[in-house]
Each structure stands twice: as structure tokens, then as C-alpha cells.
Amino acid sequence: MNVLLIGSGGREHAIASKIIQSKHLDQLFITPGNAGTANIGVNIELAPYNFESIGKFACANRVDMVVVGPEEPLVNGLADYFLQNERLKNIPVIGPVKAGAMLEGSKDFAKEFMVKYNIPTAKYFTVTQNNINEGFAFLQSMNAPYVLKADGLAAGKGVVILNNIDEAKAELEAMLSGKFGSASNKVVIEQFLKGIELSVFVLTDGQSYVILPEAKDYKRVGEGDTGLNTGGMGAVSPVPFANTEFMHKVEQRIVIPTIEGLKKENIKYKGFIFFGLIKVDGEPYVIEYNVRMGDPETEVVFPRIKNDVLELFQAVANETLANQKLVIDERVATTVMLVSGGYPGDYKKGYEINNLGKVQNSIVFHAGTTLNDGIVRTAGGRVIAITSFGKTKEEALLQSYKNAEIIDFKDKYFRKDIGFDL
Ligand code: AMP
Ligand code: GLY
After folding, report:
1. Whose CA is closest to atom 2 on ligand 2?
2. Does the C-beta of 71 come closer than 6 Å to ligand 2?
3. pLDDT attached to residue 137
4. Does the pLDDT at position 52 exceed 80?
5. Atom 5 of ligand 2 has which residue's CA nearest to it?
6. pLDDT at 253
7. Ligand at shortest distance from the CA of 280
8. Which of 36, 163, 270, 374 could cysteine-pair with 13, CB 3.0–4.6 Å?
9. What is the mean pLDDT of the chain?
10. How many Å lie between the centroid of ligand 1 and the Cα of residue 21?
11. Residue whose CA is closest, atom 16 of ligand 1?
């Protein structure tokens, strides 16, 4: 099989690393990819997320399957574009059609869906310019802190949590006046839930599903979960508090009703569902849906999957996933993200990354890197994820941290307390 993988982060390098282990693979193309994927496949420069150029490339290069990493092309309808095109409709896309991707593309859609199918989530109220006074009244009826969410995609920045009612009202006005562009034409106000978060992933063919290993990611830039939100500074899988009893509740109350709900809505969902969950007094609630894998969660989840992933993806395409059984590495996987100093604020790019060849007993996933003139350079905020296995979390982290000291680039920063709360 020839496979085209879309994306450029650590997530995509981790997915690519599994795909190349498949006995069914002939050639792997990645667009745009990074310096890590260039080592294991062929990076292709196409107009970013341009459906026509992706389609043309797929035809010209006899691509048999497209695997989509990020949400944006899915929310914009890449899977629909393939299904509706005579020359492309037989090339399966791993990633949902637009109607399914709305679970991530619209918070209001996701909340309505959860209420309709009785899936536990925070209480909410959706506001537009037309009912802003009702929005103020809803805020007034709640206790601090106040959670405001832009309805649409806002590059991970669309959630604002405030402690003061006047600030919350001002923020609501600012969001509705275009603070996040059209993404905040609608704003979802939510009840604040206090608990511990985790990420649960399923792969579904629209009929059946497999639950992948769960993970916990560390979103804040500073130790002890302080400072600004980032894309994610590290991750651990499995999550000890996601015990059998808890995961049974997750499956019965959240996973199954979501899959069944999508069926009832006549949405043929083929791809990943990422449940951003919070455990409150032992009970799971959905904080958000994503329609893709998480990053950096993929860097700990995918290495634990022992299956031939192209067999899983083919089963998604053929709707035979019910016949597949996951085989999971029992060991603990941890990943530590090396980031550019200054991230998630301003930071410089283009620094040479040294000592990648000196890493032992860890897997290096490239996130924001490029290769120019044979030199690997930093090209983003999150630069390198270092994944290690261990019998325990401590053993795995020790190994990731050993290599975090070895890999070097100017202004390198990483959190030294990944997994501190597990
Ligand atoms: P999101 O962009 O939806 O992942 O939200 C970003 C972060 O905001 C989440 O990871 C949570 O930590 C926090 N958050 C979102 N919704 C709530 C909520 N209803 N209660 C408490 N925290 C929340
Ligand atoms: N790590 C969280 C995300 O991928 O959205």
C-alpha cells in the first residue's frame, strides 16, 4: 500500500513510525512532514491543506489511503472531498467527514450532541449577539470560575477561564465582538468542573470501535501545572486513576453513546475520537471532543500499540473493525517535550539541534523541526518529544530525562515534573 499522511508534528512522526512497521506498506508520503518523517518516509510539499493538490498527488502517486493528523482539514471537509470525487472516492480517508468533525469544529454542536444523547458534561448556555443579555444572566446564575469557549476552531486558544464576574461579562462581549474572529461569533458558557483530566482515544469504523491506551498530558508550560497553556509539554500512558471501574463508566456512559449517537445522526464516522475527560468525584465528564489523536498523547499511545496499524486502518475503511483485537504493550510510556525558550509566547527558530545520534533507549519524535542543508534545525515551539518505556512511570521518565539533557539546542526548555500528579 502507498499511504499519504497529513501533518507535521510529533503526532504525525509517531503515527508515521508505526505505519512504517506495517508489512502492508510500500511507500509512505507525508505532507508537509518534518525532519523526523523525512528519515522514514518521503516528505511532500503541497499547498497546505489544499484539497485539490492533495487529491492530485494521491491520484498521480497511486495512494491507497490518506491518514489525517490534524483537525483543520477534517473540519474543512477533506474526507467529504474524497468521497464526492469520482477519481478519489475509493481512496479511504482515516478521519471523519465534516459532519462528524463538527464534534471538534463547533463546541455548541458538541454540547447539543452530548445533551441529546445523555452524555455527561458540564451545564452550558450558548450565546450570540442576539441573546447576550441572557448570556449575562446565565453567568450571573453561576459561581466562579467562569468558563467561556469560542464555538469554532481557535488554534487551541479559544477557552478563557476567569474568576471575576465583571471580567467574565467583558470577556463575553469581547469574544462576541470578534476576539477570536468568526470562531467566537457564538460563545459557549460552561459550568466549571473541578477534577483531574485525562485523554481517552477510540478508533472507529462508524459501527464498532476499539479503545486505545489512555494518556494524561501536561498542558501548562510551568512545573506544578502553572503558567500559560501550551500544546502539551509531556504525557504519560497508562493513567493509574483510569482503573477498570472508571474505564467501564467511560465506555458505557461516553464511548458507546457517542458512537450510537453518530449512527443515529447518520454520520459515517471513520477515524479517531479523542475524548477530553475530567474525573469529578470518581465520575467521568466530557470536557471536549477532538476528531483526531492528541499531541503529545500520540507519542505515548502509538508506541504502546503492537498491532499492524495499517491492518487497523484498513478495517476502519472496510467497516470490519469488530474483527480486530488490539494488542497493547503493558509497560508505561512517557514523553517529555523539548520546547523553544519563550514558547508559548515569542521564540526564535532555526537553531541547530545537536546530539540526536547520541540518544539511547528512547524514541525521538520530531515535532517542530526542519532539515536544511543536511542540518536538523528548530522550526516551532514544540521541537522534540522524547518517549521512553519503563516498568514504572519513574523508570520511563528517568530515561526520557537522561536524553532530554543530551539533545541540545539554544534556549532549550522542558518541564522536569511530567507525571508529578500520578
Ligand atoms: P479545551 O481547549 O476545550 O481543551 O479547554 C482547555 C482547558 O480548559 C481544558 O483542558 C481544561 O483544563 C479547561 N476547561 C475547559 N472546560 C472546562 C470546564 N467546564 N471546567 C473546568 N475546566 C475546563
Ligand atoms: N494534547 C491535547 C491536544 O492534542 O489537543
Report:
1. 294
2. no
3. 95
4. yes
5. 294
6. 98
7. 1
8. 36
9. 96
10. 36
11. 287
Buried/exposed 44-60: b ≥16 CB within 10 Å, e otherwise:
bebeebebeebbebbee
Residue 388 CB contacts under 8 Å (≥ 6 apart), including other chains: 333, 334, 335, 361, 362, 363, 396, 397, 398, 399, 400, 403
Give the pLDDT score at 47.
Answer: 86
Domain 2-96: which CATH class? alpha beta
The residues, any chain, with a CB within 8 Å of residue 60's CB and separated by 6 or more, are: none
In the chain, CATH 3.30.1490.20 sits at: 124-190
Say how many C-beta atoms besides its own lie within 10 A of residue 140's C-beta: 10
- pLDDT of res. 259: 98
Q: Please indicate, yes or no, whether the overall pTM of this predicted structure exceeds 0.90.
A: yes
Give tens-digit pLDDT for 274-324. Answer: 999 999 999 999 999 999 999 999 999 999 999 999 999 999 999 999 999
CATH 3.40.50.20 residue ranges for the chain: 2-96
With 90 as the cut, is the pLDDT of residue 155 above it?
no
List, in sequence order, every beta strand (DSSP E) within 291-381. 332-340, 363-366, 369-372, 375-378
In CATH terms, the superfamily for domain 124-190 is ATP-grasp fold, A domain (3.30.1490.20)
How far does the centroid of ligand 1 lie from the alpha carbon of residue 214, in Å? 18
